[in-house]
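Worked example

This section walks through a single chain of length 365. The input is the sequence exactly as stored; nothing has been trimmed or padded.
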Amino acid sequence: MFPSVAVLPYLFVHGLLCAVAGVAVLRWIARGPTIWRGFLGLVMVGGAGAIVSLVTAPRAEGMTAFAIALALAWTIFLVVPAFAFVVAVRMYGRPMASGMLALAFAVGAVGIFAFVVEPHRLTVSRHDVVSTKVNAPLTIAVISDLQTDDPGAYEREALARVMAERPDVIVFTGDVIQIADQERYARAWIRLRELIAEVDLHAPLGIYAVRGDVDPRGRWLSELDGTDIIGIEGPTLTVPLRDDVTLTALDLPASASVELAIAAVSRFHVVIGHRPDFALGTIHADLLLAGHTHGGQVQLPGFGPLATASHVPRDWAYGRTEISEGRTLIVSRGVGMERGVAPRLRLFCAPEIVIVRVLPDLGTG
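Given that input, the structure is written out below as tokens.
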């Protein structure tokens, strides 16, 4: 919920300028307190917050866009309801007061849901894929974008819920720990390894992990020592899971390539990668699994994710897509969320563990 310390000076300046704008608009409303002035003033304060967000955002690589998003979120869910509440109090007894008060509580409630409730409302999404290529059922658990900076009870719950599904194979599709400081990164991994041991994370056919954007090259692999997780970095790895199932694991650059080509195999073919962009390539596989997008973290009803950080179509960026006959793409919304200076919220986009059951096609004849 709380922002990175690195962005606090920016938020302080943002809040100060929004307060100045709010006082000026409040004085303007007081000159002729009507309903339309009240709501126009609300729009003016919100607009001022958006402009301040853009102008004062720190110009640092990898920080600017997320810092702007954070300030915009604070404008919508803190500045706007606070201003509406102040207007309601100042104009108590006037027609606009009740409307402003209702608006303040409504937007504030949505903000509490987005920052406090939704990020921990972990769900289990289930998908069945039927194929003539498999002789027996196969259960795959997908843990995508754990993306934590403080492993604890929530991450333990996620791992425990995976084990409750008794999967045949577990895949991590990247972005496990997001911490820039090396000492804190190491401590976080120590705690995560303890959680992995506590829930006895294992699968009969193995646990495989591919690198994500926040996983430091080389370093994340060494942190897997002492676990049953097989990390893949570098060349694409193809391994037989069973006599009838093959797994291909992609490193980060390969998963980001829209021109990637993967050859066909005779078995049921599962391809995993962090970014879903590889699905736009020539991929001869039955099941494609990815993460990275977080489902946008914020979705609007009827529109979908506001941003996906991916080249795939918006409606491919989360959930299940039948790319073509016999080719299924499943993109996880992820378990965690963007850290660092990004706003730590989810809205209409609950975190998820994905469980895929590959079932034999028994036919009807």
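What to look for: The radius of gyration is 24 Å.
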